[in-house]
Amino acid sequence: MDNYNLTSQFVSIMNVHSTTPFASPFDSKTNYVRMYQNALNKYYPNATYSIFQLEGYICSQLVIQAAQQALITLNNNSIISAIYQTSLFYIKDLSLGNYVTNCTQGSRTVLFADYSNTLNYFLSYQSLWTYTWSTASCYGDTSSITRPVLFAQSSPISSSQGQVANQYTAGVVSAFNQFNSQGGYRGRNVQLDIMDDLTSPDVMLNNTNYFINNANVIGLLGYFQSASIAASLPLVNSNNMPFIGAYSGVNFLRTPFVSNIINIRMGNSDDFLMTLSYIRSYAITRISLFCPDSPIFDDFMTMLSANNIVLESFGTYVLGSTNITSAYQNISRGNPEAILMTANDFVITSMIVLIRSDPLRLFSSPSTMKFFVSPAGSSYNIATQLISYKPKADYTTNVFFTQVVPPFSDNQLFNQYVSAMNAYPSMIYNPVSLEGYIVGRTITENLSSLSRNLRGTLSRSSFLRNLYAAQSLFLDGIQVGDYINSCNSTTTYDRCCNQGIKTIGLSRIPPTATNQTTNILTYLSPTSITLPSSQCFVNADSLGYPLTIGIVGTGVTSSSSSTYRYIIGLKAAFYGKSIGSLGTIFLKTYEDYGSNVQNTNALRLMYEKDRVIAVVGQSNQYDAQLIDSYSMFNYTINFIAPQSGSLSLRSPFRSNVINYRSSITDEVSAMLLYMITRSKKTRFIVLANIITTSTVWEDGLLAAIDLGNRNYNTPPKDTIRFTNSNSVDFISTLTSSVINNNVEVIIILGHHSHCVNIINATRSFNLNYMVSNDVNFLGLISALSNDLLRPIIPNVFSTRSLPYDLKLISSYPTMATYVKSINNTNFLISMDLDPTNPTLYTGAFGFEGFVVGTYILQILRSLADTASVTNGRSLSVNIDTLRALFMKYAFNIIPSTQGDIPVGPISNACQTSASAADCCNQISRGVYVQNTLLVSDNKSPPSYTQFLNQVPDFLYSLTGCGTVINPIPFNAVPLVVAVTCGVILLIIITVLIIFIYWRIRVFLRVYKAPKSGLMAIAFTDVQSSTMLWQQFPSEMRKALKIHNSILRSLIHQYHGYEVKTQGDSFMVCFSNPYHAIGWAIRVQNDLLDCGTWPSELILGSYDCRMEWDKFKNVIFRGLRVRIGIHVGDAEKVVDPTTRRPDYFGTSVNKAARVESIAKGGQVLVSTRTLTYVSDCLNNIETGEKASEEQWLKEYKESLDDSSNDNSSSRAESTKSSSIHHLKSNRSNFQRPVMKDDIILYYRAAGEHSLKGLSGKELLFEITSERLSGRVFEEKLSDPMENIELDYVQPINSDALPVVYNSDSPATPSSSTSVAFLRYGSLKIVPS
């Protein structure tokens, strides 16, 4: 047979076998083949190995050996005679002969070749088995051939799933080859016969009929496509044909039980239910489904109905098509957090891309949607397709793959699989080929057992009997089965099971993965979930529904927010803790972006969809809606430990609210007591921020009036209510009150931003400030840490409901437990936090969250021990009953704080008694007061951790549910005169200091201004700033602050002087041109490195977009600033009004003209500038510095070009004078030490006419190695320059378009024109 021609006819040759007389010409392990390869490489180095050349080489070697035997006479007769006389010849390890009378046969060997690994080279086959007969016989005796043990597969080789099918088959064959190399089944090789079914049910049925009627086929394996399997299964079952390892999880292969069906992978329903365990670990409760409209969909719906699981929505598509538009729209009708998907590779990839890009804007948060994929194809193929969209779009985030095979890890089974797959170098290691390998190993392990136990003939029935007798097979420590066949009817399944692997794992695409990465999937922890060996299928009752606590607030994912710290504390309390028979607790978080509407929607979603038991840590800005929850919803929401001291949450008593913090009345009482007894101050005023959603600050103001009069005989001197702490009227009123009342202390009741504004407005009065526990101290301390307000920090006092002192942690066992929990490395890793710096996540708010979380665990554990709540496996009550029971137990439990935190009992007994005093819903029984930290050096700002690590100065203990102590008499009259004089003296000193400070700053701003004469002058401007201000006014305000900050900080570093600014343009002068060049390059680098540019500018503006060079390095991001520099003489003139130096002269004009020619992101200099700094520049073309002769020559040529009369002696005299002047001045400039990591280059930017100046100027671009990839093209006059053109190719005529990038080789295949807005740039698709 012409094997070469046969092989070349097949696109996929996974199933091609052929006989061949010799080993592969590529097989260098065979001695005679290696000898042939050496000879061919020596004399024909460009030739390709082939079977014909190998056979010709063997023939020539036979002739050479025969000629050597003939010795004397060489002719036809002598050669032939020598062959028959010698009879047997050896060419290395190949024998030819015996050549005897009536037998001209040479080779006594036939190889049966497998072309499975010939994807790259034809005929690089491997021998499946070899038939060799005795040299005494001329021809082989077929009766002596040992027949192989044959298994068969109908596979969709030439369909869209062909690649996946080939990967699966490679795994099976590699397991068979491994078994055969060890002797096979009693000396017989195990082989796989494959036929293509084209994904057609009819073709699969014909293939199956052929296999069944071939008595040599022991079993069928690896069938694809559930619809095709359903058509062939009746024929398979009626013939009791072993049907092993179908690549499908449909339920009809599992129930009802049929003994000849042997499943390896887990079923779809089990896959789905066990995936729920993973999904719930992410506190996800709203799930949608996407799958084909096939038996798979029926399986899912049956399973969901049986287990009372309600989907948010579902979408299906017609099996075999790629039209997913209606499925996309149907899924969007719900509000899912995650989508469970099963389909082929292309369809899944298309749906993920479609939902993430969301062209119809149907989803609220498509970028955060989680996808749990149970692929009908290959997870590796899907991952590769999603990665291919990088870096233009990242669709790989939050995409998870369920894996029905053991995880890739350093275990014996995986190592054996890798060893076996080495025979297929073109195949990558992936879960599909691993599943095929496990199927092949299951078969060979059963055959190995049969070879030891079977006395009769191997048959289909004996294969099944032995498997069920063994029940479980162990593949290098991995269990497959229980295979149990002990039921006697189709209605009893308790003792029947044909399920193999009972493990499911979850993997995801790591952020750093590329298509060049060896392993593009990583397994998550836990790496797998495994069913007990006694359980054939997943019992949904054991999963139940998660016990969920909800929290909604502002900044839930921002590490700088108090809500974030609070959440970390809650999670630390819950981490690794079980709730008896109820399993674990989950925390559901929602971001409200500071919006009442968003907060209300989140509460509704948590209670109606997420089945939360209670909401914890509600912010004080939502007190009103918390109180009105009775009327807002048709149910009562349980609120645990709101972050508010509002009296309205305590009186009148509300049974659905449990407060952990002390009230605002208790806090104000503690403030007054501390102020009077410790600080010895009595003249105070109270400022309260009035907000419509809460009365907490108004409550505090009224408490200060009442307590000051009734308890302490020291009423406030004034009370001021405000809504805007920055308004001129409020500041004026405040200042007047402070002066008129000779105020010593201000009690501020409001948000931390109000505290900062008030402290800033009154900083010159040397006051003390008292702030509430409800303030975000992280924001307050950060805002007070600037140079202006840092001296005020020691005068700021705060209240807290919980102590937090890491210095004396031994005194607080509860705090020690909290810190230990936060320092748990496993916890930090599971939360995606930095395990090397756990102190980033500690703090007072985190401690409060931890204490509250511990209290919630106490309540739930009491519930779990209640027989009426559980049935031993899961909840036996509905969610409404559970919520009511939760609050009932909450009022009967005193939080466990190890005796170090003052807490008291709470009670709802007033609901059954006549006395309101029998009710209390506040746990805290103390208020701590502390003074903020004064940093000793008074230079570096205090950290939040330093602030929190202070020992509280004072503990105000409460008796009962928030009662106050008796009045304390105090006479403040003797202090009045002394304090008044002190305040006046302080005011005089403060005014004097401010005046001196202002004069010093004026001097510091101008002392670096160059004197008249030679200097470097630089101008800057922002590219397309006018258009940017029109399109993005708010974003440009932020961007301009960043721009100005960077330029000004570098001006100071490089000893420059800021002459003036106009809009976004700067004029800067430098005494040393080296400093000017260094400053310009650093400006470009720092603008590029800035990570705080508004994202709207980056994504929505063409002139601020990100660009990469050919090495994938970012070279443009954010505002693009052009810079022009010229060195020349200028005159210094001091402005009589501003008293700031300004500069005039031709050199100033020339520098401005050079800047106007530059492009955004470019630094241009004049020829004269280059000559001054050329000894620190490398030519970007040669990489070498210019010699002194070269730069003098270039400067002289520039003078020649600018001279109108080159022949005149006057012009020559002028040039000589200019060159002498240049040499003289150049030696006066001291070159600074440049940074080692910045190498500067220059390149010519061409000659340009400078507006208003005669002649042309040769300009040069200065750049660095990092910025050298920037390309500056001439500016387009086309008004449509910002428009990008993309091709859109619909999936089909009914599907939504899939967008290809403009650099894609794809071409439009549809006449449909589509235009839409993406990232602020119009995409136009031509018809």
From TrEMBL:
Q: Which residues form the Guanylate cyclase domain?
A: 1016-1155
Which residue ranges are recorded for the region named Disordered? 1196-1226
User: Which residue spans traverse the membrane?
Assistant: 975-998
The protein's UniProt keywords, in alphabetical order, are: Membrane, Signal, Transmembrane, Transmembrane helix
* Family matches, as CDD domains: CHD (cd07302)
Name a biological process GO annotation. cyclic nucleotide biosynthetic process
Q: Does the keyword Electron transport apply?
A: no
Query: Which InterPro entries has this protein been placed in?
Result: A/G_cyclase, Adenylyl/Guanylyl_Cyclase_3/4, Leu-bd, Nucleotide_cyclase, Peripla_BP_I
Point to the regions of Low complexity compositional bias: 1204-1217
Source taxon at top rank:
Eukaryota
Note the PANTHER family from the entry: ADENYLATE CYCLASE, TERMINAL-DIFFERENTIATION SPECIFIC (PTHR43081:SF1), ADENYLATE CYCLASE, TERMINAL-DIFFERENTIATION SPECIFIC-RELATED (PTHR43081)
Q: What is this protein called?
A: Guanylate cyclase domain-containing protein
Q: What species was this sequence derived from?
A: Acrasis kona
